[in-house]
Amino acid sequence: MSRIKTHVNVGDTVEVIAGGAKGAKGQVTSINAVKGTCVVAGARVIKKTLKKSEQNPEGGIAEVDGPVHLSNVKKA
């Protein structure tokens, strides 16, 4: 698969300029260029349910960083 160019890279500090997380600043932890999204640490925290497993016998709810569309972020 060929590399798709984006205006931000992993490790860049960015600011969210639109959406529910508007005004949040953080570091880019991952990029999905095919979907056009990136994960910004601390910007869009979502709750995810966890199934019972050996690592997590109780199951539960975890807070993880959610994706933000690339058009909604700019370099800070």
TrEMBL record:
SUPFAM superfamilies: Translation proteins SH3-like domain (SSF50104). The keyword Ribosomal protein applies. The keyword Ribosomal protein applies. Keywords: Ribonucleoprotein, Ribosomal protein. CDD domains: KOW_RPL26. Gene3D superfamilies: 2.30.30.30. GO terms for molecular function: RNA binding; structural constituent of ribosome. GO terms for cellular component: ribonucleoprotein complex; ribosome. It comes from the Bacteria. GO terms for biological process: translation. Residues 45-74 form the Large ribosomal subunit protein uL24 C-terminal domain. Belongs to the universal ribosomal protein uL24 family. NCBIfam families: rplX_bact. This is Large ribosomal subunit protein uL24.
